C-alpha cells in the first residue's frame, strides 16, 4: 500500500530525500591533530588550525578517508579515485576560517543504494546520490549570557560524512527504515557510532508533495538538523501537511530552510532572507586533489566485516532460523556475534528461542545492552548445554538464568549450589510416583475409569514432590507404566 | 563599466565589509575597471584545457590518525578580543 | 665600529666563524644603524633589539665553542607576514595590529635553527597586496635610493618593501620576503639587491600569513646571490604541515654559485618586449644577454604566447583565494575588534575598520569573481588560462635551460607618482607574475642603474626546482655588472 495523505482536493504523495551528516569515527580531526572525541572541556580539543589562526594549514587525515571509502563500499557505491576538497565560504561565529572545507564538485563516493525492509515484509531500494567528507563546525552557546553567545570549537574540524539520498523516499516509515538501515551499516563497519542524541548522526530532510502520478517534483523545503529518527518521521508528516494546505489554498510553497519544533509539532522558517547565501565554492588551494589507489580500496574492501544483509542470509542458511528471526538477530552486530557464540556447536533452535525469548527479556528487564549484558555468550551457551544434556530441564533453566543475571555466577555453579540437577534415577522417580498414587487413590480410580485428563494432575504432583527436578520424559513414562499396573 | 551600487553592496555584504555610502560609487568604478580589464581573458581559447589546481608539484600525502595537537586553550584564547572563561564570545546570535 | 657595514652575509659569517668579529658587535652595529636610519625609512614595523642582543650573545657562546650553524650570529630582518612566536605579527594590517602568535612559522624556525639573530619585523604592503609598499597600516617605506639631484621619496617596490629597503640600506644582512606575483623580485630590483622566489613548494607556507595560497612562496632577499643562496638553503625544505610542500632534498645552493653558464641555453621570451618599456631597460636586457653569451651560454629566442594574459589571470586567481583566506579576520578569535550590536554588525564594522583600501578592493573583487553566476566566466576560465601559461613555460624549458627578462618595466617611482588607476599599478608585476602563475623559480639580480641613478634588475626564470642554475647564471650577471653601488641612505654614512 502506498502512503497517501488525503487533503481537501484528494490524495497526495510525499517525496523525501535525506542528507545525513554522520560523524566519522577517528582519533583526530579531518585536517588537524586535535582530538575528535566527544566532550572535553570547552576549547581544549582545538588546534590553532581548527581556530583558523593566520598561516595555519590543513593536512588530510588518512583514516577519515579510509572511513569514507569503507562506508561507500558498505553502501554498494561507486568509489571515486579522484576527489577534491572545496571551500564553502560563509561567515558564522562557529566557523573560524570563514569557510568550511567540503567536497562539493568531486565527492569521494558516488552513487550507491540502500535496501530497506518495511513492516509489511516488502523491501524498497533507496538510491544514494553521493557521500562526501567535510568539516563539522563549532558550537555556539546562547543561554549563558544575556547579550553574548559563547563559542566552543571542540567540534570544529571533526570529520563528517554527508550522505545524500535520492528523493526516493515516499513515506515517513520509509524514511525511518532508511535511517535505521544506514545507521546499522555505519555501525557494522564502525565508521560512525550513529548516536543521534550526541549529534554524531543528524539529518536534513528535504520534503515536497505532489499528486499521485504527477511528473516531476514540486518545490521542496529543507528541514535542518533533525536529531532523532522519530522526529524525522514526524517532521515529514507535519511539513507535508503544511505544504498540502498551501497548495490546496492556491498558494506556492517557497523553497526555504525550516526548523522542526517537536514540542509544538510544527516546522518554521529558519531564514527568511536567502539572498545572503552564495557559498562561492572553489577548490581549496591549501590541499591537493585526493587521489587514491584502487589497490587500497580493494584492501579496505577485503577487510570489511560481514554486512547486515549478508549476515542475515547466512544465519538463515547456517542456523535454520526464519528470515524474521535472522533480521532481529542481525539488527546489531554485537547481537549477531553474541548469537553465533551461543549457537555455534549448540542446538541452534534452542539457542534462537532462548536468545529471542528469555535472554532478551532479561536484558530488557535489567535495562542493559548486549555490550554490557549481565550474562556472557559463553555463560548462556553453558546454560543451554545443561538443558541439552539433560542436566536440568527447561523450567529449571529459566530459574537458573534469572539467578545468573542476579549473581553473575555460572549456570553449572548455580545448579550445583542449589542442587538443581535433574533427577534421572528411575528408582527415585518410581518411589515418588508410588507415594503420590498411594495418597490419591480416589483420583487413580477416576483415571482408570476413563478420566484421562487427570494424567496432567499426577505429573504436576510428581514434579512438585521432586521440586521440579524430575526428568519430564522419565516422569511421564514411569507414570504411564504405574497407572496401567 | 562601473559596477552598480546594488552589486557593490551585495558583494560587500557577502564579504562582510561595511561600506560608507560615499565609498560605494568609487569602489564600483575601481572594481568595474578591473573587471573590464580581466575580460580580455575571453579572447583565449580554453577548449579542452583543464583548470589548474595548485601547481601540481607536491605528491598527495595523508596524515596518520593520531592526536598530536589540542589541549592548548591558553594559546587558542590568547589573542581573543573578548574572552569569557574558556570561551570566545560574539554578540548574541538569535536563530 | 666602522667596517661593520661593509660585510656581506657570507663575509660576516666567515668573520664570525674566524672570531674576527663577535655576533654581539655585529648585531649592535646593525641595531644602531636601524636606530639612526629607520625613523626615516620606516622599514621596520616592530623592532626586537633586546631579543636580538640575547640571541647574539648566545651565538657568541656557540661560536666560541667552535660550533654553530650556517647562520649563527647573522642579523636578519623578517617580513612581518611570517608568524614569530611571542613577537607581534601584523601583516601590516590594522586588523592584526595587536596579534601575537603563539607559534613560529616553519621558515623562521629554520632560520633560528641555523642560528640567525632576528632584529625585528619588516614593513610590507598590507597582507602583501601591493607593489610600492604604500599600502601599509604602519606607513609607507622609503626606498634608500635617490634619483640624481632629487630628494623625491622613491618607493621600494612591494610587497616586500621593508625587506628590500632594510637590506639595501644595510640595516640587516638579509631578510625574508614572500612573493605571490613578484613581491620579492620587484622590490629587489627597485632597491638594487638580489632576491629569489623559489619553486612553489620549496619553502613551507606553514605559519606564513596567506595572501593567495596557490602562489605564495617565501624566499630570501640579500645584497647578492651568494647571501641569498645561503639563506635559501636554510629556509627551504619539506614540511609535513604544509600539504603543498614538496619532499625533495635541499641542495647546497651556495656551491652552485660558481658553476657558470658554459654550454647552457638561455631563452629570451619575445613577448617580454613590452610596448612602452623604457629604452634603458631594453638596453640593460640586451646587456644581460651579451654577458651570458660572453660567459658561454647559447642564446635562443623563445615564445611564451600567453604572457599578456598573465596579469589578468593572476588578479582573478589571487584575489579569489585572498577573499577566502582573509575571511578569518573577523574580530572573534584574534585581532582588532570593532563592536557591533549583532554578529554581522561586528563583522562588518571590524573588517571595514581593520582592512585598508586596497585590501578591501581586492577582497571585493575576489568575492565577485567567485560569486554565483560569475565563477565559470572568471575563476574557472582564469584557472584554465593558468594551465596554458604553465604549458608555455614547460614548452620553453624543453628548448632552453633558463630564461632572461627584465624584472620590472620601470625603475622605482616616487611615492607621489603612484598611479591612481589600480590597473596601472598592477602593471608593475607584468614580468614577474607569469613565473608565479606557473610555479617555477625566478630571481632578480641588480644589473645596473638607469639614467637617474636608480637601480634596475634582471630576472632569471628556471625549471622546477632548478634554483641552482638560476643562482649560477645570476652570479655571472652579478660579476659582469660588478654592481657595487650603494644607495644614498645606508648604514655607515650619515642619514
TrEMBL record, chain A:
Keyword Iron listed: no
Catalyzed reaction equations: L-aspartyl-tRNA(Asn) + L-glutamine + ATP + H2O = L-asparaginyl-tRNA(Asn) + L-glutamate + ADP + phosphate + 2 H(+); L-glutamyl-tRNA(Gln) + L-glutamine + ATP + H2O = L-glutaminyl-tRNA(Gln) + L-glutamate + ADP + phosphate + H(+)
Leading EC class: ligase
InterPro entries per the UniProt record, alphabetical: Asn/Gln-tRNA_amidoTrfase_suB/E, Asn/Gln-tRNA_Trfase_suB/E_cat, Asn/Gln_amidotransferase, Asn/Gln_tRNA_amidoTrase-B-like, GatB, GatB_C_1, GatB_Yqey_C_2, Gln-tRNA_amidoTrfase_suB_CS
Entry's Gene Ontology molecular function annotations: ATP binding; glutaminyl-tRNA synthase (glutamine-hydrolyzing) activity
SUPFAM superfamilies given in the database record: GatB/YqeY motif (SSF89095), Glutamine synthetase/guanido kinase (SSF55931)
Keywords: ATP-binding, Ligase, Nucleotide-binding, Protein biosynthesis
Chain ranges of the Asn/Gln amidotransferase domain: 337-483
E.C. designation(s): 6.3.5.-
UniProt-listed GO biological process terms: glutaminyl-tRNAGln biosynthesis via transamidation; translation
Stored HAMAP family: GatB
PANTHER family xref list: GLUTAMYL-TRNA GLN AMIDOTRANSFERASE SUBUNIT B MITOCHONDRIAL AND PROKARYOTIC PET112-RELATED, GLUTAMYL-TRNA(GLN) AMIDOTRANSFERASE SUBUNIT B, MITOCHONDRIAL
Similarity remark: Belongs to the GatB/GatE family. GatB subfamily.
Reported function: Allows the formation of correctly charged Asn-tRNA(Asn) or Gln-tRNA(Gln) through the transamidation of misacylated Asp-tRNA(Asn) or Glu-tRNA(Gln) in organisms which lack either or both of asparaginyl-tRNA or glutaminyl-tRNA synthetases. The reaction takes place in the presence of glutamine and ATP through an activated phospho-Asp-tRNA(Asn) or phospho-Glu-tRNA(Gln).
Quaternary structure (record): Heterotrimer of A, B and C subunits.
Protein name: Aspartyl/glutamyl-tRNA(Asn/Gln) amidotransferase subunit B
Organism this protein belongs to: Gluconobacter cerinus
TrEMBL record, chain B:
Region: Disordered, residue numbers: 52-95
Single GO MF annotation: transferase activity
Biological process per Gene Ontology, one example term: glutaminyl-tRNAGln biosynthesis via transamidation
Annotated Basic and acidic residues bias: 61-85
Record's signal peptide: none
Similarity field: Belongs to the GatC family.
Matching NCBIfam families: gatC
Subunit structure: Heterotrimer of A, B and C subunits.
Record-given protein name: Aspartyl/glutamyl-tRNA(Asn/Gln) amidotransferase subunit C
Species name: Gluconobacter cerinus
Automatic annotation (TrEMBL), chain C:
Biological processes per GO annotation: translation
Catalytic reaction list: L-glutamyl-tRNA(Gln) + L-glutamine + ATP + H2O = L-glutaminyl-tRNA(Gln) + L-glutamate + ADP + phosphate + H(+)
Record keywords: ATP-binding, Ligase, Nucleotide-binding, Protein biosynthesis
Gene Ontology MF terms in the entry: ATP binding; glutaminyl-tRNA synthase (glutamine-hydrolyzing) activity
PROSITE patterns linked to this entry: AMIDASES
Enzyme Commission number(s): 6.3.5.7
InterPro entries hit by this protein: Amidase, Amidase_CS, Amidase_dom, AS_sf, GatA
Ranges of residues in domain Amidase: 25-470
Active site, per annotation: 79, 159, 183
Cell inner membrane as UniProt keyword: no
GO cellular component: glutamyl-tRNA(Gln) amidotransferase complex
TM segment ranges: none
Oligomer and partners: Heterotrimer of A, B and C subunits.
Function, as annotated: Allows the formation of correctly charged Gln-tRNA(Gln) through the transamidation of misacylated Glu-tRNA(Gln) in organisms which lack glutaminyl-tRNA synthetase. The reaction takes place in the presence of glutamine and ATP through an activated gamma-phospho-Glu-tRNA(Gln).
Sequence similarity: Belongs to the amidase family. GatA subfamily.
Name of this chain's protein: Glutamyl-tRNA(Gln) amidotransferase subunit A
Source organism of this protein record: Gluconobacter cerinus
Gene that this sequence comes from: gatA_1
Amino acid at each position: 500500500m502506498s502512503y497517501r495523505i488525503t487533503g481537501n482536493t484528494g490524495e497526495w504523495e510525499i517525496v523525501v530525500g535525506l542528507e545525513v551528516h554522520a560523524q566519522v569515527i577517528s582519533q583526530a580531526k579531518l585536517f588537524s591533530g586535535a582530538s575528535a572525541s566527544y566532550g572535553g572541556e570547552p576549547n581544549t580539543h582545538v588546534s590553532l588550525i581548527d581556530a583558523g589562526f593566520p598561516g595555519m594549514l590543513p593536512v588530510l587525515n588518512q583514516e577519515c578517508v579510509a572511513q569514507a571509502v569503507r562506508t561507500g563500499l558498505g553502501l554498494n557505491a561507486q568509489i571515486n579515485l579522484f576527489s577534491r576538497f572545496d571551500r564553502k565560504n560563509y561567515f558564522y561565529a562557529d566557523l573560524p576560517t570563514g569557510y568550511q572545507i567540503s567536497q562539493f564538485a568531486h565527492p569521494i563516493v558516488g552513487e550507491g543504494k540502500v535496501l530497506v525492509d518495511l513492516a509489511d515484509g516488502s523491501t524498497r531500494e533507496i538510491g544514494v546520490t553521493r557521500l562526501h567528507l567535510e568539516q563539522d563546525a563549532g558550537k555556539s552557546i546562547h543561554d549563558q549570557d544575556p547579550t553574548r553567545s559563547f563559542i566552543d570549537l571542540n567540534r570544529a574540524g571533526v570529520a563528517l560524512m554527508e550522505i545524500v539520498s535520492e528523493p526516493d523516499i515516499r513515506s515517513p516509515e520509509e524514511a525511518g527504515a532508511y535511517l535505521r538501515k544506514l545507521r546499522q551499516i555505519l555501525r557494522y563497519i564502525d565508521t560512525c557510532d550513529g548516536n543521534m542524541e550526541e549529534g554524531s548522526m543528524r539529518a536534513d530532510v528535504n520534503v515536497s508533495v505532489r499528486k499521485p502520478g504527477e511528473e516531476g517534483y514540486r518545490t521542496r523545503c529543507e528541514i535542518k538538523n533533525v536529531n532523532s529518527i522519530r522526529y524525522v518521521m514526524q517532521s515529514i508528516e507535519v511539513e507535508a501537511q503544511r505544504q498540502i494546505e498551501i497548495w490546496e489554498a492556491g498558494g506556492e510553497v517557497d523553497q526555504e530552510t525550516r526548523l522542526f519544533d517537536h514540542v509544538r509539532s510544527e516546522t518554521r522558517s529558519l531564514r527568511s532572507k536567502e539572498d545572503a547565501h552564495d557559498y562561492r565554492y572553489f577548490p581549496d588551494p591549501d590541499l591537493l586533489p585526493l587521489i587514491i589507489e584502487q589497490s587500497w580500496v580493494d584492501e579496505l574492501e577485503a577487510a570489511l566485516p560481514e554486512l547486515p544483509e549478508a549476515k542475515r542470509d547466512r544465519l538463515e542458511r547456517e542456523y535454520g532460523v526464519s528470515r524474521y528471526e535472522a533480521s532481529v538477530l542481525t539488527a546489531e552486530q554485537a547481537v549477531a556475534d553474541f548469537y553465533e557464540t551461543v549457537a555455534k556447536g549448540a542446538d541452534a533452535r534452542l539457542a534462537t528461542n532462548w536468545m529471542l525469548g528469555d535472554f532478551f527479556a532479561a536484558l530488557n528487564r535489567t535495562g542493559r545492552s548486549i555490550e554490557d549484558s549481565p550474562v556472557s555468550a559463553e555463560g548462556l551457551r553453558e546454560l543451554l548445554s545443561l538443558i541439552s544434556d539433560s542436566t536440568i530441564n527447561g523450567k529449571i533453566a529459566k530459574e537458573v538464568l534469572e539467578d545468573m543475571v542476579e549473581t553473575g555466577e555460572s549456570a553449572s555453579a548455580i545448579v550445583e549450589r542449589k542442587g538443581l540437577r535433574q533427577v534421572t534415577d528411575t528408582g527415585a522417580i518410581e518411589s515418588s510416583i508410588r507415594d503420590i498414587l498411594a495418597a490419591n487413590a480416589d483420583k487413580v480410580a477416576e483415571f482408570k475409569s476413563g478420566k484421562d485428563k487427570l494424567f496432567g494432575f499426577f505429573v504436576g504432583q510428581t514434579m512438585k514432590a521432586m521440586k521440579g527436578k524430575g526428568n519430564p520424559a522419565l516422569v511421564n513414562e514411569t507414570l504411564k507404566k504405574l497407572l496401567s499396573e | 563599466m562601473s559596477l552598480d551600487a546594488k552589486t557593490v553592496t551585495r558583494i560587500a555584504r557577502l564579504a562582510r565589509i561595511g561600506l560608507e555610502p560615499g565609498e560605494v560609487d568609487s569602489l564600483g568604478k575601481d572594481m568595474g575597471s578591473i573587471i573590464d580589464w580581466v575580460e580580455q581573458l575571453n579572447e583565449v581559447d580554453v577548449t579542452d584545457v583543464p583548470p589548474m589546481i595548485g601547481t601540481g608539484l607536491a605528491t598527495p600525502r595523508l596524515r596518520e590518525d593520531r592526536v598530536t595537537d589540542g589541549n592548548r586553550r591558553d594559546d587558542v584564547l590568547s589573542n581573543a578580543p573578548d574572552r569569557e572563561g574558556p570561551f570566545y564570545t560574539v554578540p548574541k546570535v538569535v536563530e | 665600529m666602522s667596517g661593520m657595514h661593509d660585510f656581506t652575509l657570507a663575509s660576516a659569517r666567515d668573520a664570525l666563524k674566524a672570531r674576527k668579529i663577535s655576533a654581539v658587535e655585529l648585531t649592535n652595529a646593525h641595531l644602531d644603524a636601524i636606530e639612526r636610519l629607520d625613523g626615516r625609512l620606516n622599514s621596520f614595523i616592530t623592532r626586537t633589539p633586546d631579543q636580538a642582543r640575547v640571541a647574539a650573545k648566545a651565538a657568541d657562546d656557540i661560536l666560541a665553542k667552535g660550533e654553530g650553524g650556517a647562520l649563527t650570529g647573522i642579523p636578519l630582518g623578517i617580513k612581518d607576514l611570517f608568524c614569530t612566536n611571542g613577537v607581534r605579527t601584523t601583516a601590516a594590517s590594522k586588523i592584526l595590529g595587536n596579534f601575537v602568535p603563539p607559534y613560529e612559522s616553519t621558515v623562521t624556525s629554520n632560520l633560528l635553527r641555523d642560528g640567525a639573530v632576528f632584529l625585528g619585523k619588516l614593513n610590507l604592503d598590507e597582507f602583501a597586496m601591493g607593489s610600492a609598499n604604500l599600502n601599509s597600516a604602519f606607513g609607507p617605506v622609503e626606498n634608500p635610493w635617490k634619483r640624481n639631484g632629487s630628494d623625491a621619496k622613491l618607493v621600494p617596490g612591494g610587497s616586500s618593501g621593508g625587506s628590500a629597503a632594510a637590506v639595501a640600506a644595510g640595516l640587516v644582512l638579509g631578510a625574508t620576503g614572500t612573493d605571490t606575483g613578484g613581491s620579492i623580485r620587484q622590490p629587489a630590483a627597485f632597491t638594487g639587491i638580489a632576491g629569489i622566489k623559489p619553486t612553489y613548494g620549496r619553502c613551507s607556507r606553514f605559519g606564513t600569513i596567506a595572501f593567495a595560497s596557490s602562489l605564495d612562496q617565501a624566499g630570501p632577499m640579500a645584497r647578492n646571490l651568494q647571501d641569498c643562496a645561503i639563506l635559501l638553503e636554510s629556509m627551504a625544505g619539506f614540511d609535513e604541515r604544509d600539504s603543498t610542500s614538496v619532499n625533495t632534498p635541499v641542495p647546497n645552493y651556495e656551491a652552485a654559485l660558481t658553476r657558470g653558464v658554459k654550454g647552457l641555453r638561455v631563452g629570451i621570451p619575445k613577448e617580454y618586449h613590452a610596448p612602452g618599456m623604457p629604452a634603458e631597460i631594453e638596453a640593460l636586457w640586451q646587456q644581460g644577454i651579451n654577458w651570458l653569451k660572453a660567459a658561454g651560454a647559447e642564446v635562443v629566442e623563445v615564445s611564451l604566447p600567453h604572457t599578456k594574459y598573465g596579469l589578468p589571470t593572476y588578479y582573478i586567481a589571487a584575489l579569489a583565494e585572498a577573499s577566502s583566506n582573509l575571511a578569518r579576520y573577523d574580530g572573534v578569535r584574534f585581532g582588532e575588534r570593532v563592536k557591533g550590536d549583532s554578529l554581522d554588525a561586528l563583522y562588518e564594522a571590524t573588517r571595514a575598520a581593520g582592512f585598508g583600501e586596497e585590501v578591501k578592493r581586492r577582497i571585493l573583487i575576489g568575492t565577485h569573481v567567485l560569486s554565483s553566476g560569475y565563477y565559470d566566466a572568471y575563476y574557472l576560465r582564469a584557472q584554465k588560462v593558468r594551465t596554458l601559461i604553465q604549458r608555455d613555460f614547460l614548452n620553453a624549458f624543453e628548448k632552453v635551460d633558463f630564461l632572461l627578462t627584465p624584472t620590472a618595466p620601470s625603475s622605482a617611482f616616487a611615492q607621489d607618482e603612484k598611479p591612481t588607476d589600480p590597473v596601472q599599478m598592477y602593471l608593475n608585476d607584468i614580468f614577474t607574475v607569469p613565473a608565479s602563475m606557473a610555479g617555477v623559480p625566478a630571481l632578480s639580480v641588480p644589473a645596473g642603474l638607469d639614467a637617474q641613478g636608480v637601480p634596475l634588475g634582471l630576472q632569471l626564470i628556471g625549471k622546477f626546482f632548478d634554483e641552482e642554475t638560476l643562482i649560477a647564471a645570476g652570479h655571472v650577471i652579478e660579476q659582469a655588472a660588478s654592481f657595487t653601488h650603494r644607495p644614498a641612505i645606508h648604514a655607515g654614512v650619515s642619514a
